[in-house]
Amino acid sequence: GNKSRHHGELVDFEPVKIADVIDTTMPTISEDYEYQVLIPWGSPIEPGATTEYLGQPDSRPSSQEAALQTGLGHDGMWFFSSDHRDYVKFGRHFRPRCDEGMLCVNHEYGTNNHALGKSQPENLEDVRLSQNVHGVSVVKIKCNRRGHWRVVKSNHSRRITANTPVSFSGPAADSALLQNPNGNIPLGTINNCGSGPTPWGTYLTCEENFNGYFGASLGLVPTEEQERYGFSDQGFGYGWYQFDKRFDLSNSDYANEQHRFGWIVEIDPFDGTQKPVKRTALGRFKHEAIAIAESRNGRIAAYMGDDQRFDYCYKYVSNKSWKSAIHDGESPLDDGKLYVARFDDDGTGEWLELSIDNPVLAQRFDSQAEVLIYARIAADLLGATPMDRPEWTTVGKHGEVYWTLTNNSQRTEPNAANPEAPNSDGHIIRTLDMDDHLGTRFQWEIFLLASSTRGTENVFTDPDAAYIDPQGRLFIGTDGSQPDGLQDQLVVFDTNKDNPEPKRLLVGVSSDEITGFTMTPDQRTAFVNIQHPGNGSPSATNFPASFDGVTIPRDCTLVIRRKDGGIIGS
Ligand code: FEO
Ligand code: CA
Ligand code: CA
Ligand code: CA
User: Fold this and answer.
1) Which of 219, 241, 59, 49 is nearest to 139 (CA)?
2) Which of 8, 79, 91, 405 could anchor a disulfide with 388, C-beta 3.0 to 4.6 Å?
3) Beta partners for 348?
């Protein structure tokens, strides 16, 4: 049915209609596209991983097995061609291969019911299993001549879990607030939500709801700082603290473990022995995702959301060009300035620097390290604008930045940048820095209120994941209950248009979330994640298995292609 098609449009595929979605146990994709399932939970990555387990879809791995396989909660990800390092060296005219590369995939979380088959851990082994389905997978994948992608062996491939040794870098690295009385080395990354690549060829993974993994065996009277970061005596019910003292806020030996999470972590996809590095200059908050833009002089700006109701939008700017920093053996992410956004009513805004040189912050904090560790409190003091849950960011061809604001059920007072109270459907804001990403002033506009799509064939709500391609196609993945009986979806906009309309490319399965969009450099293969299908419960979907009501559903990646081999989104 392509009667109504406008040929030559940038976004030209036949969208999935509401009426096309009849089976919520399997995804529905545009008739112009096809998908393949890749790396479901339990796929072998590291040597010694058992494959036996994948043939037994009802079984769960041991904690040791889990640490060698893909985990749960597939979220942010990025595809790095095997030639990516040459691409970094030779620039955009170099054509990297598109049939082989490293796929970095975040494993945001798996509930205890999904990972363990019960709501609470009963021993340390249960906790280790839960911890080992969290983290990041770095996995080599390759496409054969028939267009089928599979995992292949590589010594760059690895699992990073809640127990992998990591290091700290940047202004807060040596702070006493990051050392524990018992001297334990820094371990692990958790709740790895969104992500972003760097211009120098590494992967950044973002620690979001880290507070939920801590609890307090003796109960908790939270400090002001703990309150602001949402720590409580039970956390989100994972129960790790009952068997692993590291996550027990009542254990004074691990008093500062809580400060070791909430960071952006840098991973080298081409060095399986590299220790992941937590970059403290980017601040500690519930990091959703990161999008890096390059300025005229090679300095970089990183745009980042803090996903909580009434939390903020941030920007980091490096002091040096990334090339000269790398040349000098430094990281562009260790030396720079961190800002938080104030959105003014007139469509402009200001980036407020989180600096200890500001007397307002010097009165509250002793050092720049403290400002960064308690970035949320510093941002409060500067008068940043409370937003409707800042999720992903992505930078378009004119340097414009798209920010997804997923929803805010608790907003009672609208402001210009968050005009709906309550905001049940979410919106997308577009900002443009007035000085090529380096400035302290920006312009902003509402790109779209998701509520405006209600009552139309193209309805979608709760925008979350975001990715824009070089031609201006904006891909948005949703996370929240969708209207009209739809499941979470992937929609595409042509941002070159004055009034861009979403077109529905994919609809997921019952209770899942669509997230983590990336492509091969030729834009002919895309990867997107089906996160927590059925919320881990087999009664609604058993995806990627077909419906039987009993097989454990598994988070997985979908490889997406146009049937005619064309550009994704076209
Ligand atoms: Fe992990 Fe805010 O989504
Ligand atoms: Ca998200
Ligand atoms: Ca979300
Ligand atoms: Ca999620």
Assistant:
1) 49
2) 405
3) 443
pLDDT, one tens digit per residue, over 160-183 is: 999 999 999 999 999 999 999 999
Q: Which residue has the tokens 């995702």?
A: 289
**CB 555 less than 6 A from any atom of ligand 1:** no
Q: Which ligand 1 atom is nearest residue 75's CA? A: 1
193 lines ligand 1 (CB under 6 A): yes
CA 107 – ligand 3 centroid, Å? 14
Whether residue 222 is predicted with pLDDT greater than 60 in this model: the reply is yes
**What ligand has the least distance to the C-alpha of 462?**
3
The pLDDT of 517-543, averaged and rounded, is 97
Q: Which residues, at least 6 apart from 418, have a Cβ–Cβ distance to it below 8 Å?
A: 385, 386, 387, 388, 405, 408, 411, 427
pLDDT in tens, 76-128: 999 999 999 999 999 888 999 999 999 999 999 999 999 999 999 999 999 99
Which residue CA neighbors atom 1 of ligand 1 most closely? Answer: 193
The DSSP bridge partners found for residue 291 are 303
**Separation CA 305–CA 290 (nearest Å):** 8
Pairing type for strands 287-294 and 299-306 reads antiparallel
Single-letter amino acid, residue 332: P
302: part of which helix (H) or strand (E)?
strand 299-306
Which residues keep their CB under 5 angstroms from ion ligand 3?
464, 479
DSSP designation for 217 = T
Closest CA to 336 of 353, 324, 323: 353
Q: What is the pTM assigned to this prediction?
A: 0.97
Instruction: Report d(CA 381, CA 11) in Å as an integer.
Output: 44
Q: Which ligand is nearest to the CA of 209?
A: 1
From the CB of residue 176, how many other CB atoms can be counted at a distance below 10 Å?
10
Is the C-beta atom of 388 inside 6 A of ligand 1?
no
**pLDDT confidence of residue 52:** 66
Distance CA 468, CA 466 (A): 7
Report the Cα 340 to chain-centroid distance in Å.
19
Q: Are 233 and 220 in contact (CB under 8 A)?
A: yes
Ligand nearest to C-alpha 210: 1
Q: Which residue in the block uniquely carries the two structure tokens 């009209």?
A: 484
Nearest to 513 by CA among 476, 539, 484, 545: 476
For 372, the 3-state DSSP assignment is helix
* Tokens coding 430: 């577009």
The rounded Å distance from CA 183 to ligand 2 centre is 34
Q: Which residues surround ligand 2, an ion (CB under 5 A)?
A: 391, 464
- Cβ of 311 less than 6 Å from ligand 1: no
* CA 544–ligand 2 middle distance (angstroms): 21
